[in-house]
C-alpha cells in the first residue's frame, strides 16, 4: 500500500490538505496495523476516535439547535443519537469510500475489515478528530455536515414529522385490537413554564414515558419512546 498516495487520495475526497500528514495517517490507522507494523503500538486511531466522537456530538447538536428552534430537548436528543449512531456514520464513511484508505493488519484485511461497520464508523470519528486538531472546528463542522448531509436529511424527513401517537395506535389496532392510553403522571415548574410528564400504556403495561412543555408534547414524546422500543424489539 502506497501510504503517501492513500493520504493524498483521502485529502482530495474531502477537499482539504492537512498541515500535519501524520495526524491524518494516524486517523486512518487501525490497531491491527499498528500492532503489526509499528514499534509504537499506540500509534493508531483510537484516541482520535474518542475526540472525534465528542466533536461530532457538538457539531450535530449545534446544527439541530439552530435548525429546529421549536423542537423539544427530548426530540433533539433522539434525533442526534440517530445521526451519530454507527449506521449513519458508516453511510458517511462509505460516501467517500473511507474503507479503501484505512490501514489494516493482514488478519483484519483477510476478514473483510474494510467493510466492517465498526471499523468504518470508528475511522470516520477519528477523521473528524484529526480535522478538528489540524484545521479547527469550523472546517471540521463544514466537512462533517457535508458528509452526513444525506443522512441528516433522510432522518429529518423520517423522524421529525412522524405522528407517533397515530403510528402507535395503528400498530396496536392491527396486532392486538388494543388502543394505547395516555396519562399525565407529573407536572412541574411555574405556571408560565410548566413541564409535563406522560406515560403511554396498553393493557395496563407502560410502554414509554416522555416529557414536554404541553400535555400533547409529553404524550408525543412518550409515544415516540414506545415506538423506538417497539422498533428495536425491546418491549417485553
TrEMBL record:
Active-site residues, record numbering mapped to chain: 53, 125
Gene Ontology MF, one: rRNA binding
The protein's name: Ribonuclease 3
Subcellular location: Cytoplasm
Family annotation (SUPFAM superfamilies): dsRNA-binding domain-like, RNase III domain-like
Main location: cytoplasm
Pfam (any one): dsrm
Gene name per UniProt: rnc
One GO cellular component term: cytoplasm
Family recorded in the similarity comment: Belongs to the ribonuclease III family.
Cofactor(s) listed: Mg(2+)
Single biological process term from Gene Ontology: regulation of gene expression
Amino acid at each position: 500500500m502506497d501510504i503517501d498516495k492513500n493520504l493524498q487520495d483521502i485529502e482530495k475526497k474531502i477537499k482539504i490538505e492537512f498541515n500535519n500528514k501524520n495526524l491524518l495517517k494516524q486517523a486512518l490507522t487501525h490497531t491491527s496495523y499498528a500492532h503489526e507494523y509499528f514499534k509504537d503500538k499506540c500509534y493508531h486511531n483510537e484516541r482520535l476516535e474518542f475526540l472525534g466522537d465528542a466533536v461530532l456530538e457538538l457539531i450535530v447538536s449545534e446544527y439541530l439547535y439552530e435548525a429546529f428552534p421549536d423542537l423539544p430537548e427530548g426530540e433533539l436528543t433522539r434525533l442526534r443519537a440517530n445521526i451519530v449512531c454507527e449506521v449513519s456514520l458508516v453511510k458517511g464513511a462509505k460516501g467517500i469510500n473511507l474503507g479503501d484508505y484505512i490501514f489494516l493488519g493482514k488478519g483484519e484485511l483477510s476478514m473483510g475489515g474494510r467493510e466492517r461497520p465498526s471499523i468504518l464508523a470508528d475511522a470516520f470519528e477519528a477523521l473528524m478528530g484529526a480535522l478538528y486538531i489540524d484545521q479547527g472546528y469550523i472546517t471540521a463542522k463544514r466537512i462533517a455536515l457535508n458528509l452526513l448531509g444525506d443522512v441528516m436529511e433522510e432522518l429529518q424527513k423520517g423522524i421529525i414529522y412522524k405522528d407517533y401517537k397515530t403510528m402507535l395506535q395503528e400498530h396496536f389496532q392491527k396486532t392486538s385490537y388494543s388502543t394505547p392510553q395516555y396519562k399525565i403522571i407529573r407536572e412541574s415548574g411555574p405556571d408560565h413554564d410548566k413541564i409535563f410528564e406522560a406515560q403511554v400504556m396498553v393493557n395496563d403495561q407502560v410502554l414509554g414515558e416522555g416529557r414536554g412543555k404541553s400535555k400533547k408534547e409529553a404524550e408525543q414524546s412518550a409515544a415516540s419512546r414506545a415506538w423506538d422500543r417497539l422498533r428495536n424489539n425491546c418491549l417485553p
